[in-house]
Amino acid sequence: MPQPAPFSVIGHADGYGGRLLVTCEHASNVVPAPLTHTAGDQRWLDDHWGWDIGAPDVVRELVRLKDCVAVLCGFSRLVLDPNRDVTHPDLIRREVYGEPLSFNVNLDAEEVNRRITELYAPYHDAIDKALHARLAVGGDVVLLSMHSFTPKLDDDVRAMEIGVLYDNYDAVAERLADAFREQGFVTALNEPYSGRTGLIFAANRHGREHGVIYIELEIRQDLIDTPAKAIAVARRMEPAISSLQIRDTPR
Ligand SMILES: [Zn+2]
C-alpha cells in the first residue's frame, strides 16, 4: 500500500495566494504504516480524540473562497500531536479514558524519534515552506490554525460556537471575534481553552518564527459534522475573516 503523506498542501502552494495562510493540525485520523490499529482503537480515531471533525472541510472551503494556501496534517493526533511541542507530555497519548491505544503500547525512544522525523518534522517543514513562499510575495499575512472542539467534554458543556484563541495580537483576535459575532456566531475569546497556556503550539511556533499575525480558531463540531454544514459555516466565516483590517497583499 502506498504510504500516506504526512501532510497535504492545497491552494496556492506557489505563494501567490491571498493574505491568509491556513493550517489544520488535526485534519486526519490516519494511522500511517508501518503502524497498525485495532477495532478498539478505531472508536477513538473516529471520535474527537482522533481528529478535528469537520475542520478540514471548513479549511478546504475557505481556501476555495479566499484563493489562499493551506497545509493539512495527514496523520492522527493520537499517533503524534503536531499541535504540541515535542517535549509536551501529551505529544503521544498512551491511552484514552484508561483504554490503551494499541499503536502506542511499548513505545520506546527510537519509535518516538521515528515519528518526529517522518511525520512531525515534514508537517512543520511544509508550513515553513508555505510561509516562506507566501512572504516572498509581500504584504501582511495572517496565519490561521483551524481546529474544532467537541460540544461536551466530560462535564464541560460548551455553549460557544467559535473560539478565537490567541497569546499575542490581542486586538486582532478581538476584532475577529466581533466580526464573527456580526455573522451570528456565538463567539468567545480564549475558550474552550486559553491560547496563553501553550496549547496553540503550531500557530505560535510558525507565527513567531516568521513574524506574522497568528490566531487559532476552534469551531464547535456539531456545527460542521457533515461536509454540507462545514461548507455553510465556512461561507459564514469568510466575510468576518475578510473584514480583518490589516494591510492588503500586492498582487
Ligand atoms: Zn485541534
Q: How do the strands and helices of this protein lay out in sequence?
A:
Elements: E1 7-11, E2 20-24, H1 39-46, H2 55-66, E3 69-73, E4 95-96, E5 99-100, H3 109-137, E6 142-149, E7 152-153, E8 156-157, E9 162-165, H4 170-182, E10 187-189, H5 201-210, E11 213-220, H6 227-242
Parallel strand pairs: 2-3, 2-6, 6-11, 9-10
Antiparallel strand pairs: 1-3, 4-5, 7-8, 9-11
Helix pairs in contact: 2-6, 4-6
The structure holds zinc ion.
Task: Describe the model.
The protein contains six helices and eleven strands. With 251 residues, the protein is α/β, with parallel strands linked by helices. It has one domain (7-242): Aminopeptidase (3-Layer(aba) Sandwich). The strands form three sheets. Strands 1-3-2-6-11-9-10 form a seven-stranded mixed sheet, sandwiched between helices. Strands 4-5 form a two-stranded antiparallel sheet. The chain has a two-stranded antiparallel ribbon with strand order 7-8. The radius of gyration is 17 Å and the shape is globular. The site of zinc ion (ZN) has 5 residues, from loops.
Supply Rg: 17 Å
Largest sheet: 7 strands, mixed
Specify the helix fraction band: 25-40%
CATH superfamily: Zn-dependent exopeptidases
Number of helices: 6
Euclidean distance between termini CA atoms: 42 Å
Which secondary-structure class do the elements indicate? alpha/beta
Please state the oligomeric state of the protein chains shown.
single chain
Q: How many discrete structural domains?
A: 1
CATH topology: Aminopeptidase
Poorly predicted tracts of residues? none
Element-by-element helix/strand order: EEHHEEEHEEEEHEHEH
